[in-house]
Amino acid sequence: MSPDSARRAENLGYTNVKVYHEGVQEWVKRNYLVLSTQYLKEAWIDKDIPHVLVDVRPAKDAEAGFIKGAVSLPAADVAASLAKFPPKDKKAPIMIYDQKGGDDAVKAAKALIAAGYAPVDIVSGGFDAWKAAGYPVQTGKLAENIVYVPKPRPGEISFDDFTKIAKNTPPDTLILDVRNRDEGNAGMIKGAMLIPDEEIMDRLAEIPKDKKIVTHCANGVRAEMAYHKLKDKGYNVQFLNAKVEIDKEGNFKIEKP
Amino acid sequence: MLRKWIPCLSAALILAIIASGQVSAQEKAPVAAPAAPQAKPTMAKICANCHQPQPSNIRGIFDNVSYKTQSIQIKIDEATEILKFDDKLKIANIQAPADSPDEPLRALKKGKEVRIEYTEKDGKKLATLISAKAPIKVAPEKQVKTEEMEKLVAQGPEKGKYMLIDARPLPRFQDGFIPTAVNIPFPAFDKMKDKLPADKAALIVYYCAGVT
Questions:
Q1: Domains of chain A with bracketed CATH
Q2: Average pLDDT of every residue of chain B
Q3: Do A16 and B204 touch (CB under 8 A)?
Q4: What CATH class has B140-207?
Q5: A58 and A74 in contact (C-beta within 8 Å)?
Q6: Residue B178 is nearest to which of A15, A17, A33, comparing CB atoms?
Q7: Are the Cβ atoms of A43 and B171 closer than 8 angstroms?
Q8: N or C, fewer C-beta in 10 Å, chain A?
Q9: Rounded to an integer, what distance in angstroms lies between the CA atom of residue A199 and that of residue A226?
Q10: pLDDT in tens, B116-135
Q11: For residue B12, is it left (φ>0), alpha (ψ between -120 and 50) or beta?
Q12: Percentage helix, strand, coil for chain A under 3-state DSSP, each rounded to 5
């Protein structure tokens, strides 16, 4: 998506357009990401998407007001408390906040990244920004133990179910490949239909309402967006939240995103 | 293509002028000249994002091929264009499928963006070259490495004089983004053009999920 955007910008006359090709995938190995309090609330907490939220302020500051679901772990203690975190291979998203989104959060984030955790996010503006936005605040004792239970996102199909369908698609089911044409041309799952995600709303007539639809893309993001569009239109739909590689013959490999 | 239309156009115009002259002479009322025939489009809208129309070239979406009748069908938005081809047809960026090495165009899937060069004789187009759109590759000098990215972010957009744009869809941006980035998902490029810097020489860095 970024090379396409860069090319479009050049066509508008921009003369110094570059692409950070390695992208988020490489960035998170050495650096933290950020997210706003609004995104933390709307994309994670309200949707009940599993994550680890760490309040790195001194315990007494945290107890005076904290964000729901946060675990208390002062910044200075993070490096010595790695055992409290879920195993690295679980790739649990870790969100960190301090009072103002400052040095304490950065220190805690760096300790985790140095130990190989990713992705690690810092909440911009910290607790002050959360409070200023008028979001709910809890008081009292915070949890001390991190509990992280991965669970499927709404609409997600299990790998086993998807594999069964992809190997032998029943007549009442359609696999909808929502990647772009170049990706589709490089290889598709046998029997799948290709409609790039951004074209779905214009091409609903081609998608049968009487079949169960299963969307997939290359990494689960577009598949999930397509899932929401189709669900809103009354389709019986699920999506595959996975990295998918398909060769020319239609052989496929799926793994966790 | 355009040049070919000129004789027809002028003929139509002359006829129109003669016709309107006669009518107005008899009835003394102005009559609009009949519309000149419209030239068929030579390029699909989606191709215009990156390409200019060229003479004797068509850019569109591959629809299908028939080796029996030696013809290729291309969609140019609403219009359909059918071109003949012969054994001299050149092919670029297309790898013949293993099961039909002699019919390489079978490798093209419906919906693939293609460019066709053709010659025209007696109003019939003969394709001389068909080239499929290759995946976009970013030249090394246009790439920013992680180390440079870290330096820029450490300086911030004002001191580092850059704009960092996350081209991923909003739901992924919401999960967390590289500090100082703004979100302009690729499909929303046109809608959000005004977010780009006013200075066309400003450094713009795009990123997405990464090489997958």
A1: 20-132 (3.40.250.10), 159-255 (3.40.250.10)
A2: 82
A3: yes
A4: alpha beta
A5: yes
A6: A33
A7: yes
A8: C
A9: 10
A10: 999 998 888 999 999 998 76
A11: alpha
A12: 40, 20, 45
Encode pLDDT of B13-49 as tens digits. Answer: 444 444 444 444 444 444 555 555 556 788 988 787 6
Q: Amino acid letter at A49?
A: I
Check: CB of residue B112 under 8 Å from CB of residue A181. yes
Q: Do B205 and A4 touch (CB under 8 A)?
A: no
Query: Higher confidence at residue B97 or residue B19?
Result: B97
Query: Do residue A21 and residue B143 have CB atoms under 8 angstroms apart?
Result: yes
pLDDT in tens, A42-64: 999 998 999 999 999 999 999 99
| Cβ–Cβ below 8 Å for A23 and B207 | yes
Q: How far apart are CA A77 and CA A12, in angstroms?
A: 50
* Integer Cα distance of A221 and A197 in angstroms: 10
Respond yes or no on whether ipTM tops 0.85.
no
Query: Selecting from 2.40.50.320, 3.90.1150.10, 3.20.20.60, 3.40.50.720, what CATH number does the domain B45-132 have?
Result: 2.40.50.320
User: What's residue B2's pLDDT?
Assistant: 41
Residue A4 — very low, low, confident or very high, per pLDDT cuts 50/70/90? confident
Please give the structure tokens belonging to residue A247: 């060769």
- Looking at chain B, which residue has its C-alpha nearest residue A199? B187
Of B193, B200, B208, the CB nearest to A23: B208
Give the best residue of A11, A21, A31, A183 to mutate against chain B (max B CB count within 10 A): A21
Nearest CA among A94, A45, A37 for reference residue A68? A45
> CB of A247 within 8 A of CB of A187?
yes
Contact B176 A121 (CB under 8 A): yes
Mapped onto helix, strand or coil, the DSSP state of residue B46 is: helix
Residue B70 has pLDDT above 90, yes or no: yes
Asked if A165 and A228 count as a contact pair (C-beta separation under 8 A), the reply is no
Phi, psi of B187 (to 5 degrees): -65, -20
Other C-beta atoms lying within 10 Å of the C-beta of residue B205:
27
The CA distance from B177 to A93, in Å, is 12
Residues of A in contact with B209 (CB under 8 A): 23-25, 219, 221
Distance from the Cα of A116 to chain B's closest Cα (Å) equals 17
Orientation of helix A103-114 relative to helix A23-30, angle to 10°: 100
Q: Torsions phi, psi of A221, nearest 5?
A: -70, -55
> Is residue A16 within 8 Å of B196, Cβ to Cβ?
no
Closest CA to B162 of A14, A5, A22: A14
